[in-house]
């Protein structure tokens, strides 16, 4: 049982796996195909005779890979150097020192749960209808809402108590989502923001710039009620982006285009301030970076930085250099105690990722190229977000069924290929959808504000996962 | 209007002591008869005085149906049948019938022998009660009496759990008991056909819950067991003899097999045989995979799980032991627990609910020092893990079942009342939804179809009158007499009805007097009327009869003069009931004013 077998997917490189996790992996795989007499999965963890012979061991004579590359069977094996990229064929397990075996042209069977690896916690839920929004409404509750039918549900869910039990975690059996509040919406919900410090949420249906205001309900009732609406400034078919900040009475910043962004007080409907721009670019997001400074990011890659306290013209940054006309951009700003240390990441539909400084939006702090297979029609689900705790980490989702975590601190100012620090493929692997139906796309992800590696993610099949990943051990010195 | 009444005596806006009274088509049925595990006073059993203040329940109940063997669904049965008094039939499935008395006896032992309670049912009472049980098969329609029939459907949840359809005439109610919509390793998923009941009474334990996937639960369980085994610890899993234990056994067995683990797994003696015996006996109640592979290999004959002997507990090295009872209140599980509690390498995994006062309950509440008999204290150093594996339908599952059965109304029980407003609203988008509290009655008016026999003569006559046979989808009016005799309804022609009932036929005629001024003699006036009508009512048969009457079709007109005024003539009209409804009458009525005008002008 001590020999560690690792195979690699043909397409995506994976990190080596330590022994205890591997057991876990095998186990998950094994449990799934049960006691039926189904044929053995394609990957046989314990290689039998002929397979081992296929392995090619290069005799490198004491040379070491630097840096270490790991790849699939499309990559030549050997000693990797900065100039000749070869995937290392001398991998050994870091905890048992046994050799890592490789099998050409094999990949893990879909039923194999090797992606269960490296999670501290993993909870998998299935909503009745998929959601495109996940938003914290308190420390332990999130709000989700459907978009797929004419009438949808908006739900406030309490996360499993087990996740938050620090002492005697074993004694807490509560590992389910609890629907604490629920309501019905008359249309799809494309965007949702909880107004901090209130029991109020604001949604947009993605078809007009009007906003719906919801009372999330208190302890006495489990019903979410419609509390009003806010009229948008323009007719738009893409829907308004919404941002909210801690304020009393509650206010929201909203708009569909850079020309119609405004701050509205929810109770009175009074417009408190407007973004003063000439152009009417489609917005990809609105975000407060401090109490008064906010960003209006446009789909073409421009970012406006404005202050709600002044009526001065906003500062506009040009799109990053590589953006063509057909390219769409998403962005996110890191939340920092000081505005000066706020970083902004911009991600394009062709996989360019550019990190810039808030003070110098034209300059590039670091950048990388993501390997994205773009489905042109699926881009509305793309989202990129900074980890609120892990410095320099970002999560990217929406291109396919995977949530990827990148460490931007490893990037430099020159363009390079980005390797994910961690990938959550669970939505694809655990999906119950049959072959032939539309591929699973991650519709949303959300970092936990305090727990460094805990994320929630939702996919187009209605699945919602809560996962607390473990940073893979560095593969550096073998 | 006929009504179906549903009154929960237990489990109304509450979990525990399920007991629901249903009154349908004049029949009274009790669904489940459970006890509340959390109480040891009056609240433990349902309040049967609701049914009758004094005397036995037999006269008031047509039958009792038990959905499955969990004590919150059958725990009050001996109390009800033997102590309150009920001699009618008690229906339950074969596995429930087999397992229920074992659990009842087990619980009786804890309550009476351990806690020293009196005023509890005895072993003999359990036996006497079980004699009244009539077993049910899945999908078999059982005729309780001439009108009341019941049918059981598979509910998953535990071995032998059933949903029942209760039907009187065209009215029906489905009671789900506890059910599970996702299959597990040893049981299948609940299933029901599109029976469109008037009321679907559903449990709602997890109605506001979105459950974590089974895979994640199992992964955590195996991870915990494996971790403990790896560090050389011993794992104790206190279980109930039957229920989730088998699920966990299959899980561990598969795990051991595939991982090639060598640490022994033991199962309390007695239990193995008993459980295996039942599962072999009731293999049809497990899931399809187990049934299919049964011929080659019985899933419940474990390769790695062996019978436990009390001496094994002191063996060195890691091991896993499944032991009864599940709440660590007595017996083997408690003995082993005492032995292993002092070593922090060891672990106890509690897979289910524990009643207050038991050691299981104490350690789940984090108690680390236990007082044992004889003033000794026990330091709990081993790791305590609580993992719930109960198989209930969650919000999604409930909606799935609703769509399967397509009920007209929904009634939720076995769930907490507070904070279910949203779910109720959700269901009410499609159905009426009721959530009565204990002792509260939900009433649903039904619209049952009443079959009526029609005489062939009448049918033929109607066919002759109204053309071809009526479209079965459309209502059609017809004339006839409805005779209700004994329990049958008959529609016959009026003649036949008269004959059958020995009644004379009565003729109904309508009369009318019209006063006019006319100086002519009576016969002359009549003749003038005759000629006038003849000219006005063309196409009608108008006769001047020799007896001094004019007949327009069947309407008779006579003339008489008043005694005081010779010029004042009274026109007497008379027509039968049939005419009143015929077109002639309508025509005649239309012309009546003209008579006046005509004669007025004379």
UniProtKB/TrEMBL annotation, chain A:
GO CC term (a single one): spindle pole
Annotated WD repeat ranges: 442-468
PROSITE patterns hit by this protein: WD_REPEATS_2 (PS50082)
InterPro entries noted in UniProt: CFAP418, WD40/YVTN_repeat-like_dom_sf, WD40_repeat_dom_sf, WD40_rpt, Wdr73
SMART domains with a match to the protein in the record: WD40
SUPFAM superfamilies: WD40 repeat-like
Gene Ontology biological process terms in this record: cytoplasmic microtubule organization
UniProt entry keywords in alphabetical sequence: WD repeat
Protein name as it appears in the record: Transcript variant X2
Organism: Nothobranchius furzeri (Turquoise killifish)
Automatic annotation (TrEMBL), chain B:
A Pfam family assignment: Beta-Casp
Cofactor: Zn(2+)
Domain Metallo-beta-lactamase: 16-229
Keywords of this entry: Cytoplasm, Hydrolase, Metal-binding, Nucleus, Zinc
GO CC terms: cytoplasm; nucleus
GO MF annotation list: hydrolase activity; metal ion binding; RNA endonuclease activity
GO annotation (BP), single: snRNA processing
Protein name: Integrator complex subunit 11
Native source organism of the sequence: Nothobranchius furzeri (Turquoise killifish)
């Amino acid at each position: 049982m001590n020999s560690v077998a690792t195979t690699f997917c043909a397409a995506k490189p994976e990190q080596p796996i330590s022994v205890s996790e591997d057991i876990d992996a095998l186990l998950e795989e094994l449990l799934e195909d049960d006691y039926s007499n189904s044929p053995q999965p394609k990957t046989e963890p314990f290689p039998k005779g002929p397979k081992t012979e296929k392995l090619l061991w290069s005799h490198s004579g004491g040379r070491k890979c630097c840096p270490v590359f790991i790849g699939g069977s499309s990559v030549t094996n050997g000693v990797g150097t900065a100039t000749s990229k070869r995937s290392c064929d001398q991998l050994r397990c870091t905890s048992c020192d046994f050799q890592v075996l490789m099998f050409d042209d094999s990949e893990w069977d879909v039923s194999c749960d090797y992606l269960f690896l490296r999670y501290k916690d993993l909870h998998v839920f299935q909503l009745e209808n998929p959601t495109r929004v996940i938003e914290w409404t308190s420390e332990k509750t999130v709000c989700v809402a459907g978009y797929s039918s004419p009438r949808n549900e908006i739900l406030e869910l309490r996360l499993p108590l087990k996740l938050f039990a620090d002492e005697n975690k074993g004694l807490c059996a509560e590992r389910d989502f609890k629907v604490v509040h629920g309501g019905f919406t008359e249309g799809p919900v494309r965007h949702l923001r909880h107004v901090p410090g209130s029991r109020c949420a604001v949604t947009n249906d993605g078809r007009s710039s009007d906003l719906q205001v919801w009372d999330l309900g208190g302890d006495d009732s489990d019903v979410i009620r419609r509390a009003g609406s806010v009229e948008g400034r323009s007719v738009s078919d893409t829907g308004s982006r919404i941002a909210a900040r801690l304020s009393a009475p509650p206010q929201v910043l909203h708009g569909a285009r850079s020309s119609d962004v405004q701050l509205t007080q929810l109770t009175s409907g009074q417009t408190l301030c407007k973004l003063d721009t000439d152009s009417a670019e489609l917005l990809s997001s609105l975000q407060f970076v401090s109490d008064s400074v906010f960003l209006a990011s446009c789909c073409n890659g421009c970012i406006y930085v404005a202050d709600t306290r002044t009526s001065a013209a906003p500062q506009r940054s040009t799109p990053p250099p590589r953006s063509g006309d057909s390219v769409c951009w998403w962005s996110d700003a890191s939340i920092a105690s000081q505005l000066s240390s706020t970083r902004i990441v911009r991600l394009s539909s062709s996989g360019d990722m550019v990190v810039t400084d808030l003070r110098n939006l034209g300059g590039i702090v670091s950048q990388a190229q993501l390997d994205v297979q773009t489905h042109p029609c699926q881009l509305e689900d793309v989202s990129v977000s900074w980890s609120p705790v892990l410095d320099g980490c970002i999560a990217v989702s929406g291109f396919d069924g995977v949530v990827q975590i990148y460490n931007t601190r490893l990037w430099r100012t020159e363009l390079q290929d980005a390797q994910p620090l961690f990938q959550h493929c669970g939505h694809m692997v655990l999906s119950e959808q049959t072959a032939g139906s539309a591929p699973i796309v991650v519709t949303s992800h959300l970092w936990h504000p305090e727990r460094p590696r805990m994320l929630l993610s939702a996919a187009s099949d209605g699945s919602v996962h809560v996962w607390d990943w473990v940073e893979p051990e560095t593969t550096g010195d073998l | 209007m006929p009504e179906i009444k549903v009154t929960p005596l237990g489990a109304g806006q509450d979990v525990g002591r399920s007991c629901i009274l249903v009154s349908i088509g004049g029949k009274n049925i009790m669904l489940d008869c459970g006890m509340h595990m959390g109480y040891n006073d009056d609240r433990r059993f349902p309040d049967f005085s609701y049914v009758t203040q004094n005397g036995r329940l037999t006269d008031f109940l047509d039958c009792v149906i038990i959905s499955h063997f969990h004590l919150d669904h059958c725990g009050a049965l001996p109390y009800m049948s033997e102590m309150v008094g009920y001699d009618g039939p008690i229906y339950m499935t074969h596995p429930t019938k087999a397992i229920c008395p074992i659990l009842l006896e087990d619980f009786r032992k804890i309550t009476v022998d351990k806690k020293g309670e009196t005023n509890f049912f005895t072993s003999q009472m359990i036996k006497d009660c079980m004699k009244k049980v009539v077993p049910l098969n899945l999908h078999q329609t059982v005729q309780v009496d001439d009108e009341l029939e019941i049918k059981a459907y598979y509910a998953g949840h535990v071995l032998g759990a059933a949903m029942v359809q209760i039907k009187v005439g065209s009215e029906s109610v489905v009671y789900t008991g506890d059910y599970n919509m996702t299959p597990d390793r040893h049981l299948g998923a609940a299933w029901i056909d599109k029976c469109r009941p008037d009321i679907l009474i559903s449990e709602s334990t997890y109605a506001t819950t979105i459950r974590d996937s089974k895979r994640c639960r199992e992964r955590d369980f195996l991870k915990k067991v494996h971790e403990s085994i790896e560090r050389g610890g011993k794992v104790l899993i206190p279980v109930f003899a039957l229920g989730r234990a088998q699920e966990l056994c299959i899980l561990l067995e598969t795990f051991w097999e595939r991982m090639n683990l060598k640490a022994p797994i033991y199962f309390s003696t007695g239990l193995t045989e008993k459980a295996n015996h039942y599962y072999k006996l009731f293999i049809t109640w497990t899931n399809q995979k187990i049934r299919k592979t049964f011929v080659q290999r019985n899933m419940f004959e474990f390769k790695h799980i062996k019978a436990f002997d009390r001496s094994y507990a002191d063996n060195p090295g890691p091991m896993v032991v499944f032991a009864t009872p599940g709440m660590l209140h007595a017996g083997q599980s408690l003995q082993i627990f005492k032995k292993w509690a002092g070593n922090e390498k060891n672990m106890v995994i509690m897979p289910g609910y524990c009643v207050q006062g038991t050691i299981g309950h104490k350690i789940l509440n984090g108690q680390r020092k236990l007082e044992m008999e004889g003033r000794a204290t026990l330091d709990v150093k081993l790791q305590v893990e609580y993992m719930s594996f109960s198989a209930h339908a969650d919000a999604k599952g409930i909606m799935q079942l609703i769509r399967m059965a397509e009920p007209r109304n929904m009634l939720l029980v076995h769930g907490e009342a507070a904070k279910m407003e949203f779910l109720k609203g959700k269901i009410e988008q499609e159905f009426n939804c009721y959530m009565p509290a204990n002792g509260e009655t939900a009433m649903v008016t039904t619209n049952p179809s009443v079959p009526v026999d029609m005489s062939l003569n009448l049918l033929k006559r109607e066919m002759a009158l109204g053309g071809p046979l009526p479209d079965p989808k459309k209502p059609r009016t017809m004339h006839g007499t409805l005779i209700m005799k004994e329990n049958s309804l008959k529609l016959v022609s009026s003649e036949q009805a008269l004959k059958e009932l020995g009644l004379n036929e009565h003729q109904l005629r309508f009369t009318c007097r019209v006063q006019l001024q006319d100086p002519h003699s009576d016969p002359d006036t009549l003749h003038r009327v005759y000629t006038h009508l003849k000219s006005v009512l063309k196409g009608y048969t108008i006769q001047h009869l020799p007896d001094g009457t004019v007949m327009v079709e069947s309407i008779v007109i006579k003339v008489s003069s008043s005694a005081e005024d010779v010029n004042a003539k009274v026109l007497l009209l008379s027509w039968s009931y049939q005419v009143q409804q015929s077109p002639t009458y309508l025509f005649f009525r239309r012309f009546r004013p003209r008579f006046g005008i005509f004669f007025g002008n004379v």
